[in-house]
C-alpha cells in the first residue's frame, strides 16, 4: 500500500523530477519503496548464477546511487549505467516524457551520468549480494573512430566489480552511436573488447562476461548479421533491445511526437521480433536477455517464448512497481513446473 501511494505521488511530479526523487528514496535506508522479498528461481547464463530471471534494465540507476534500495526489491539482477569515461550532462531538458495512455515513456537523456570513476566509487561503497551488470558507453564528444578507446577504458575500470558488462551501441540519443552496429565498426569494436577481456583475465584471474545491447529498428537480415558478428567475436551474449525511434500506432496524447527513444508497451512486439531473429541466427545455446515492453507477466513470457533466457524491466517497473517482478517470477515458476 505504501509503495502504491508513493508511486501515485511520484507520477504527479514532472517526469525527470520524479525519477531523481525515486533514486534518492531508494538510496535511503528508510525508503518506503523497499519491501519486496526476492523470489529464488535460479538460472545460470554465461557462467553466472542468477537468483531469478527478472532484472532491472540499465538507465534507471545510471550512477549506481540507488543500489542499496534496488537490491531489496526482488530483482534477480540489476544493471546500472549507461556510464561513460567522463561525466556529461546529457541532452537539454525536458528530455523525459510519460505517455500513460500508451503505457510508455519517451526519453532523449543522452547518457547523462557522473562518469565511470564516480560509479565505481558508489559500487565500492555498496555492492549488492546479487548479480550486478554495468552498462558502458562512449562520451558524446568522442568520435566514432575513437569509440573503442572509451569502451575499453570503461571496461577496464568496472570489470572487477561487475558480474557482466553491457556494451551499449544502440541508444538513439547519442548522435551516430548506432553506426557502431554496422558490420565493420562492430567487428573492430568487439575484437578489441574481447582482447581487453582476455588480457584482464590473465592479470586478475577473473573472467567478466561481455554482452552487447542492440537496437530494435533494423531489418531482419541486418539483425541476423549483427547477431552472428557478435557471436563469432567470442562475446558472451546479446540484449534485445534498446528503445525505438519508431512511434507509429500510438494512441493520441501529450508528448507522443517528442524525439527520443520510445520504451514501454508499444515496443513489445518489435522487441520480440528482434529476439526471434537473433535466436534464429545464433542457435539454441547462445545467451539472450530480453527487454522492451514488459508490463505484465504474460509480456515477459512472450519474450521467453521468443527465445530470451532472462528478461529485464524498466518502464513496466515505473508503471507497475515491484508487483511486476513478483508476478513475472511466479508465472515463470508455474510454467517451469508444468513442463
Structure explained in plain terms:
It is a single chain. The protein is of the alpha/beta class and 339 residues long. Helices cover 39% and strands 17% of the residues. It is built from 11 helices and 13 strands. Strand 7, helix 5 and strand 8 form a beta-alpha-beta unit. Helix 6 runs parallel beside helix 7 and helix 9 packs across helix 11. It starts with a helix and ends with a helix. The mean pLDDT is 91.
Question: Which key phrases capture this entry?
Answer:
339 residues; alpha/beta; TIM Barrel; eight-stranded parallel barrel
CATH top-level class: Alpha Beta
Total E-strand runs: 13
The structure class reads alpha/beta
Topology pattern, helix = H, strand = E: HHEEEHEEEHEHEHEHEEHEHEHH
The end-to-end distance, rounded to whole angstroms, is 35 Å
- CATH superfamily descriptor: Aldolase class I
Q: Gyration radius, to the nearest Å? A: 18 Å
Number of helices: 11
Strand count, sense and barrel status of the largest sheet are:
8 strands, parallel, barrel
Amino acid at each position: 500500500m505504501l509503495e502504491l501511494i508513493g508511486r501515485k505521488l511520484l507520477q504527479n511530479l514532472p517526469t525527470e523530477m520524479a525519477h531523481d526523487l525515486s533514486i534518492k528514496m531508494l538510496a535511503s535506508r528508510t525508503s518506503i519503496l523497499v519491501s519486496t522479498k526476492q523470489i529464488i528461481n535460479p538460472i545460470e547464463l554465461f557462467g553466472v548464477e542468477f537468483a531469478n530471471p527478472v532484472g532491472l534494465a540499465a538507465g534507471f540507476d545510471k550512477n549506481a546511487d540507488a543500489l542499496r534500495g534496488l537490491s531489496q526489491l526482488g530483482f534477480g539482477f540489476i544493471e546500472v549505467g549507461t556510464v561513460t569515461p567522463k561525466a556529461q550532462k546529457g541532452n537539454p531538458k525536458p528530455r523525459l516524457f510519460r505517455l500513460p495512455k500508451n503505457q510508455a515513456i519517451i526519453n532523449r537523456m543522452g547518457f547523462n551520468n557522473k562518469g565511470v570513476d564516480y560509479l565505481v566509487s558508489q559500487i565500492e561503497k555498496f555492492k549488492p549480494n546479487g548479480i550486478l551488470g554495468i552498462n558502458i558507453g562512449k562520451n558524446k564528444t568522442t568520435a566514432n573512430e575513437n569509440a573503442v578507446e572509451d569502451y575499453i577504458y570503461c571496461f577496464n575500470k568496472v570489470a572487477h566489480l561487475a558480474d557482466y558488462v553491457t556494451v551499449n551501441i544502440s541508444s538513439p540519443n547519442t548522435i551516430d552511436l548506432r553506426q557502431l552496429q554496422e558490420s565493420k565498426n562492430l567487428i573492430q569494436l568487439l575484437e578489441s573488447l574481447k582482447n581487453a577481456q582476455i588480457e584482464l583475465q590473465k592479470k586478475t584471474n577473473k573472467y567478466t562476461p561481455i554482452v552487447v545491447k542492440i537496437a530494435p529498428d533494423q531489418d531482419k537480415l541486418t539483425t541476423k548479421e549483427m547477431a552472428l558478428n557478435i557471436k563469432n567475436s567470442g562475446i558472451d551474449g546479446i540484449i534485445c533491445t534498446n528503445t525505438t525511434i519508431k512511434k507509429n500506432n500510438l494512441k493520441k496524447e501529450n508528448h507522443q511526437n517528442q524525439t527520443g527513444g520510445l520504451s514501454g508497451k508499444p515496443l513489445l512486439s518489435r522487441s520480440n521480433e528482434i529476439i526471434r531473429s537473433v535466436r534464429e541466427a545464433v542457435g539454441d545455446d547462445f545467451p539472450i536477455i530480453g527487454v522492451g515492453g514488459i508490463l505484465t507477466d504474460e509480456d515477459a513470457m512472450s519474450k521467453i517464448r521468443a527465445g530470451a533466457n532472462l528478461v529485464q524491466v524498466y518502464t513496466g517497473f515505473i508503471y507497475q512497481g515491484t508487483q511486476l517482478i513478483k508476478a513475472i517470477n511466479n508465472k515463470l515458476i508455474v510454467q517451469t513446473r508444468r513442463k
